[in-house]
Amino acid sequence: MTDFTSNFWGFYIAVIVLISIIAVALLLRSNSTVRVKKGEKVELMGHTWDGDLAEYNNPLPGWWVALFYLLIAFALGYLLLYPGLVAFGNARHWSSASQHSEEVKQANNQFGPLYDKYLNMPVAEVAKDATAREMGQRLFLTYCMQCHGANAQGAKGFPNLTDNDWLHGGSPEKIKETINKGRQGQMPAFGAAFGEEKVKDVANYVLKISGRKHNDLRAERGAATFQQVCIACHGPEGKGNQDIGAPNLTDKIWLYGGSEQTIIETITNGRINVMPSWQAFLGDAKVQLLTAYVYGLSQNVVAK
Length: 304
Known about the structure:
By secondary structure, this protein is mainly α.
């Protein structure tokens, strides 16, 4: 909900719309009153093109005037039936929200039984069902591909869902919990606390434990800082903690990139990442199908 609401703008829009329609009608009227008597010579307006083509002060054609009046009548009828005048509502009591709700209700009545078929099945079994897999894929391409990609392999800042590396766990229960409730991951910024040199030391230690090229001297100094500060989330060995969504720093999988510069950026500025909650919007049955689809991708389940 917005913190700023005012009925003034509804009346403002209504007045502008009505004045505009009245002005168009008056303009049309004033330009359609000219009549040419039989045998009377039409006045030239003084505009010529190419020497021969001239503009005459002829009255507007009757069909053209009638068409404009029909358009004005249509506009007034539309404003009466739909909320174009905003503050005054409409005769049909129509709104886009009510229409959407009605369409959702009709869709649920039509497709609900098909979704509900899989609601009480174990996720692992649903993942093996070819029809359920196809339905889950369509849901994924509608709601999830914007962040995770059509192939579910993610992008910078958005996890790859096709591997078996999980920030919060990859069991059916954890995947469903993530979709239902959403997630909010946060890596605090340590640039001000550590200083530039210490940040580089910690970054090189992270490179070392992940098996990447690093500066040994900096990594040795960074180890002490890591054991004092970073183990609170990532653990003493840097293997992460799925309970709080802290990533494993010892593998080759990086959400934002594993170069020295990127790791320095992460330590310095921190990271904030949000996975929205979908339960209220999708409902239990669709979440079940999405869960099964994602679980099947990560486990290489073959649908039958």
